[in-house]
Specification:
Strand content: 15-25%
Strand order of the largest sheet: 13-15-14-16-17-18-19
CATH architecture of the largest domain: 3-Layer(aba) Sandwich
Oligomer: single chain
Number of helices: 18
CATH superfamily of the largest domain: Alpha/Beta hydrolase fold, catalytic domain
Distance between the termini: 39 Å
Shape: elongated
Number of domains: 2
Length: 557
């Protein structure tokens, strides 16, 4: 379905397409086993494994006793790791035991992190279990649900590869069902619900077990049992759970057809804790899409330690029924706001897919009053407009390149539009999109003062997103006469289905199926790569490898 963006226009065809779509991510739970052992091989078990086996038998009927024995097993394994830090079996035993502590706490809804330590009996006396974290200043540990990643099975169209890292600790998914309080203090936090990957490392001080919750996107190694150990991680499980539970696909079509109803979903958000030392990568999705579309790329990039060390990932989400100059105006306001909230952040790398590439292109452009005068002939002060209409149009048509952007990557971006946006199916689809009241209110004003050329797309209403994908849309035509600023380097990644074709407008035309080469090609790009892909080129492995190459190039300059 992701390759049928422009074909969304037929209601019947769309319903069939949606019915046949697989889920972006599926999540199910399993009962993990420490190791598959042959029958009757109990004598081959390590002491830690024998202790775990006893705890597993108690888990259902005496959970507190089971937790005590899991801690016994973890402590035995940690002593082995102190003397033999490279003992893979001891590390596995330790990680499994700590994961099961969290499994039992979750299953039995046992509070462990709110105040006094949890006291449980072990083989040699009482354990006192407590936790701490430096990941966030928010006192939210008691509110979090921790799900061991090893008991999560993943699937779905956007979760093809599970990216993990071997090391010490129990990878967990920390979830917070209501992050309203956090959003009030930090409007760029992940969202109303939070899904974050952490790794639990338990250290023993006498009969005290202190669990630290570490961020594997920030920390590669930890001090443990007298040695430095790599920190274990599961980078995919939190992302998959977010997609499975929140199901962003359910509003993608709605945000196209009724953008005004979803105006509050236009926001810039971080998917991880803000780090002023890391370069922001800001991803901008396309038509009838959401930030979910970046999951395959994000999953692959965060598996690389060099990317984790140097970059943090941000996302711009918006109702894709808006005309894209309006979406770009909202993004500028969001960037101004995040600059005020996180002053002095490093220069952003923008990555835009499809219409998101068109929005990103406007962040690299100095329009002056050229677009305004081409559209209306008279300067803003002389145009007969209400104050609200003048402000909305000024925000959309008069802008400067962003000095907070350091580089841009355009992927399958129809800079000059797509002919598919002009056929009868697209025209019908355009009529289905209900413009928000904020834009409808300026429609009559705009039509009264607009000037058109004979080959322009003529409309009797304010343009929507489909209209601004048409090659003969006035804005699309005129913005492409304005060069991209030389101050910001940019790159192009273009999809080609491999069916042959010319790179110019003579048929047959080289295309990703929806965006032809003549539209996605931009002069002046520092690099251009054509990948064997349909329109979802940003999910192509070669394209992802190219993005990684560009990011590493950017990090060294």
């Amino acid at each position: 379905m992701k390759n049928s963006r422009f074909a969304l226009i037929s209601g019947a065809a769309l319903s069939i397409a949606l019915a046949g779509c697989a889920q972006y991510a599926t999540v199910s739970e399993k009962c993990p086993r420490i190791v598959p052992l042959p029958a009757g091989s109990g004598a081959l078990l390590t002491l830690a494994e024998q202790t775990i086996a006893k705890a597993l038998r108690k888990d259902d009927h005496n959970p507190l006793a089971a937790i005590g024995e899991y801690l016994d097993a973890a402590e035995i394994a940690s002593r082995q790791l102190k003397s033999s830090p490279n003992d893979a079996t001891a590390r596995r035993d330790y990680n499994f035991a700590i994961s099961r502590v969290f499994s039992t706490l979750r299953a039995e809804k046992i509070p462990a992190w709110g105040g006094e330590p949890l006291r449980v009996s072990g083989a040699n006396g009482e354990w006192q279990l407590s936790g701490r974290t430096d990941i966030t200043r928010e006192p939210i540990l008691p509110q979090l649900e921790f799900i061991p990643a090893d008991q999560i099975q993943l699937g779905g169209t956007y979760v093809q590869q599970r990216e993990t890292k071997a090391g010490i600790g129990a990878p967990l998914i920390a979830t917070l069902r209501d992050a309203t309080a956090i959003l009030k203090r930090d409007p760029f936090a992940q969202g109303k619900n939070i899904y974050y990957g952490v790794t639990a490392v338990a250290r023993f001080e006498g009969r005290r077990c202190i669990v630290s919750f570490e961020d594997p996107l920030t920390k590669e190694n930890v001090a443990f049992a007298g040695h430095t150990q790599p920190l274990a991680a599961d980078f995919t499980a939190p992302l998959a759970l977010l997609l499975a539970r929140e199901n962003p696909k359910k509003i993608e079509l709605a945000r196209l057809l009724r953008p005004g109803k979803y105006a509050e979903t236009a926001r810039l958000a971080r998917l991880q804790i803000y780090d002023p030392s890391k370069i922001p990568v800001l991803c901008v999705h396309g038509l009838m899409d959401s930030p979910a579309t970046w999951a395959p790329m994000l999953n692959a990039l965060r598996a690389d330690p060099d990317i984790r060390k140097r970059y943090q990932f941000w996302f711009y989400s918006y109702p894709s029924g808006y005309p894209y100059p309006h979406s770009a105006a909202i993004l500028r306001k969001q960037l101004n706001a995040i600059n005020a909230h996180h002053p002095g952040h490093k220069k952003i790398v923008l990555i835009g897919h499809s219409m998101g590439g068109m929005i990103s292109r406007l962040m690299l452009t100095d329009s002056g009053d050229k677009l305004w005068l081409k559209m209306f002939s008279k300067p803003p002060g002389e145009a007969h407009l209400t104050a609200d209409s003048r402000q909305l149009l000024t925000d959309a048509l008069i802008f400067k390149h962003r000095e907070d952007v350091g580089r841009a990557i355009f992927i399958a971006a129809p800079h000059r539009g797509s002919d598919l946006a002009t056929n009868w199916l697209a025209r019908f689809g355009s009529s289905l999109i209900k413009s928000p009241n904020t834009l409808l209110s300026i429609g009559n004003d705009v039509l009264k003062i607009s000037t058109f050329q004979s080959d322009d797309l003529h409309l009797k209403k304010i343009p929507n997103s489909v209209d601004t994908l048409a090659p003969n849309n006035r804005f699309v035509k005129e913005v492409n006469t304005i060069p991209i600023t030389r101050a910001i380097p940019y790159h192009s990644i273009i999809g080609d289905r491999g069916k042959g074709g010319n790179k110019d407008r003579n048929k047959p035309i080289c295309s990703d199926g929806f965006v032809p080469y003549w539209s996605s090609h931009v002069e002046g790009a520092q690099s251009e790569l054509i990948v064997p892909s349909g329109h979802s080129a940003h999910q192509n492995p070669q394209a992802i490898a190219e993005v990684k190459r560009i990011l590493m190039l950017n990090a060294t300059r």
